[in-house]
Specification:
Distance between the termini: 51 Å
Main location: mitochondrion
InterPro entries: Hypoxia_induced_domain, RCF1
Largest sheet: none
Number of helices: 3
Keywords: Membrane, Transmembrane, Transmembrane helix
Helix content: 55-70%
Shape: elongated
Strand content: under 5%
Pfam families: HIG_1_N
Order of helices and strands: HHH
Organism: Sousa chinensis (Indo-pacific humpbacked dolphin)
Structural class: mainly alpha
Number of strands: 0
């Protein structure tokens, strides 16, 4: 049998620091951006998602208001509208993902 060569000690594992991977940068952006800057950038990249979210919230709010007032027909209509707005938002997210994937291809 062959004797194993000398073992070099590895650096101790430090859980508070991210691992160093050669050729990989964990951040695409060179500077950190605030919540407002990131929100505005994402809204500019895919403006249909916030519109869908606002539509969903509006339909839900008005539907709950109608339910509270006892207008069950209108409340049911608004809950169905909310589902449609949620579907629109999901489709907008998927279309935005597809567009960003196509844009990043060489």
């Amino acid at each position: 049998m062959a004797t194993p060569g000398p073992v070099t000690p590895e650096a101790p594992f430090e859980p508070s620091q991210p691992p160093v991977i050669e050729g990989f940068s964990p951040s695409v952006y060179s500077t950190s951006e605030s919540f407002k800057e990131k929100f505005l950038r994402k809204t500019r990249e895919n403006p249909m998602v916030p519109i869908g979210c606002l539509g969903t919230a509006a339909a839900l709010t008005y539907g709950l208001y109608c339910f509270h007032r006892g207008q069950s027909q209108r409340s049911q209509l608004m809950m169905r509208t909310r589902i449609a707005a949620q579907g629109f938002t999901v489709v907008a997210i998927l279309m935005g993902l597809a567009a960003s994937t196509m844009k990043s291809r060489p």
